[in-house]
Design goal:
Helices cover about 30% and strands about 20% of the residues. The chain has helices at about 20-30, 70-80, 115-125, 130, 150-155, 160-165, 170-189; strands at about 5-10, 15-20, 30-45, 50-55, 95, 110-115. A 4-stranded mixed beta sheet has the order 2-1-4-3, covered by helices on one side. A two-stranded antiparallel sheet has the order 5-6. The protein binds zinc ion (ZN). Zinc ion binds near residues 88 and 118.
Length: about 190
Amino acid sequence: MGQEVLVLNSDYEPLNICNMRRAVLLVFLGKVDVLHEDGALLRTVRNEYHSPSVVRLKSHIKRPRPKLKLSRRSIFARDNYTCQYCGYRSNDLTVDHIVPKRLGGETSWDNLVCCCKKCNCQKGDKTLSQVGFTLEREPRRPKYVPFISLTKFISGARNEVWRDYLPVFDGFARRHATEDAEAAVAARR
Ligand SMILES: [Zn+2]
């Protein structure tokens, strides 16, 4: 019963990742529909069931919009782990103040971007025009806030079936899943 189950709201919004015990209880209480099963069998005294992998609540749960925290990780996720100056993609990035702090640049969604170390070195505390950099896109506060934590989201994106239900940061999730697979292959060599 160690596996995890993705729980969707009735409108398919990802709500949570719960353990199998809880998911099975929700199924038996008739609170959820099972959208996907995985191969494992669960046995009860009378029956056998395939264990659920994705379930959807029958009635809609209203939830407050969570506050989006400004953090290095959330900047990385918003910018798809891509340097906003040169387009370099990596897991080893920094965050740059577009308008440098010494010129009054704020630590805010629209003044922070994902930046590779090379570009960060070059830019230092200069302005964009001083170094001739342009932005890949205007940084903004992301509209959508995933209800489930980013960590859970990332681990969820590794699950082939779940991935389709995790539309947030879509490219990001897929890329991470691919990179993980590639890293696993490389590690085996
Ligand atoms: Zn760069």
